[in-house]
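User: Last request for today: this protein with adenosine-5'-diphosphate, please.
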Amino acid sequence: MPLAIRHLIRETSRETLMPLGNVLRLAMSVPAAFDAKSGKVALVRAPDLDLNALSAKRRNVIEAADPGTPLATAELARRAEVNASLIRNMVGDGNLLRVEVPENWHDAEGLEFRAVTLSPAQAQMADIFKAAVRTSAFQSLLLEGVPGSGKTEVYFEAIAAALEMGKRALVLLPEIALSAQWLSRFRERFGGDPLVWHSGITGAQRRRNWLRIAHGGAQVVVGARSALFLPLTDLGVVVVDEEHDPSFKQEDGTLYHARDVAISRARIEVCPVILASATPSLETALKAGAVAGYNQATVETKYCSLPARHGGARMPVVDLVDLRRDRPARGRFLSEALKVAVQRTLALGEQSILFLNRRGYAPLTICRACGFRFCCPNCSAWMIEHRFRERLICHHCGYVRPTPEFCTECGALESLIGSGPGVERIAEEVAALFPDAKIAVMASDTVRSAAAATELVSSMQHDEIDILVGTQILAKGHHFPNLTLVGVVDADVGLTGGDLRAGERCFQLLYQVAGRAGRETKPGQVLIQTHMPEHPVMQALKSGDRDGFLRVECEERRQGGMPPFGRLAALILAGADGELVKQTGRRLAAAAPHDDNVRILGPAPAPLSLLRGRYRVRLLAKAHVEVDLPTWVRAWLAHVRIPSKVQLQIDMDPVSFL
Ligand code: ADP
Ligand code: ZN
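Assistant: Here's the final one, the structure of the complex with adenosine-5'-diphosphate:
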């Protein structure tokens, strides 16, 4: 294991308080890769081929496939100027043979950068990035720019600069499995594929990819969180795209924040890290000095911003629809204003997105006769109706039951109604309103594989869908030229719940969704339905006043001593014996060292006080920024014995407060 990875594991363990072994496991996610047998496979031409029996394209491939130098599929495809699929067909047809090559053999991937002509503003940013890469020093750079401003094109330049120096690049994307558009853009610019790493790839592929990385064969690796611990040497640049995305925080098992680990990794590798986003997290924005009036800039974070959309496409016009005035009929969720807008968009032959960040049909199933509400038996949460699948599902533990035909409490028949909307219900409403429109639903449980997502995105791009109804998975990165209307069905969804970052998140998410509209020549329109049009988040979205919003948000956090002006550690206790869990919580709080700079909040029942059949209690340590909180918590815990029937989970810098 490279020394850098060992450093990274130690540092991550120290910062997150996760046992070393747990973090180590992240780096050794491919046990089979440590087997002695590690030959690689490449292609050569089959002997005794009748060249005249082959098509011209196939002949080109055979000519490029010199028997003396086995080539990887991508490289062979590049040299013969054909698609990789043809190569694979030729292997199937016996034109090409697979051979084992020695283990230290390097893939000649031959990525070759073909830049687009950058605008002056883009070129200026690209120059800064290239210079940072060439300096081979640690530095973090924030690249902020509205969706469509060309951030991806600009950080591609930094990757190209690293490749030019014979170095490698690591790119982190949220939910990479769904980013086929990103991959095809990469292919267009670099004439080859990056190595893809995420939880969706299968065992054999995983092992192959891991070996290729370990042997210096992958020039560019793009992946989700877990890619951070790959044994990729000679790193020239690390990129974290959509750096604000909450999915970078791993919430299961080993709790770490991929953005923070990426910064650590770059520091250890002594290379720059580029954090890109249209809506940077407050943490990053402050470090870069990007919030007017808050001069927190650290010397090591440089702020770079792209002011406008590429090609002069304008930002969409955002309007708020006050649901208290323009009130949809009972059991309906689209206002008159939104219906008219969809109608007009359809008439123009353009596309609409209706966004609602809630899966399923209805978030709550109620009995009209007795008022009974269906609740998960394992969690303190409602069961969500999924009408397409005829199931009630708990979104926390996955508990599933068939949708009942009568109330299990009072026995009344046909008394059950769904309360509130989910995307499936919106799709139903839209289908009734616009029977001739082509409608599709995009949510993580209706689009269950990367291939299905790619297909849906592609039919949207090819104008085979008029109205796409979906959750946050459609907010990310997609570029749909004919999409001109974005309707947000219920903007208030994320604002309730008292989460520290609720406002920030809501703004980021809706800003991203809004950014899908009018990305090319046709102007875009965004309609946001809300019960709170006066809320600072809604006002900021309407006026596009990101700075003003961040200033308000900063001021609130500063006054409350909340991150990034203070630091938090959450301690979550869970166990089957509720009384014992509570008691342990009280003992833990009582054992906290006295310190003017650290306050202990709780114990309090967690918002999900019952999860997967276990009772949960939370404590929060809130510290002054100067306190070394991981060390402080370690010292605290050293004095307390936690009963074996109670589990303690430590969440440094928590993102979720459930
Ligand atoms: P962002 O990452 O900021 O959302 P992208 O890099 O995806 O922006 O750019 C948006 C669209 O504009 C893409 O289709 C991209 O290829 C195109 N684009 C951006 N800059 C240029 C440029 N200089 N020349 C040609 N096309 C560009
Ligand atoms: Zn449950």
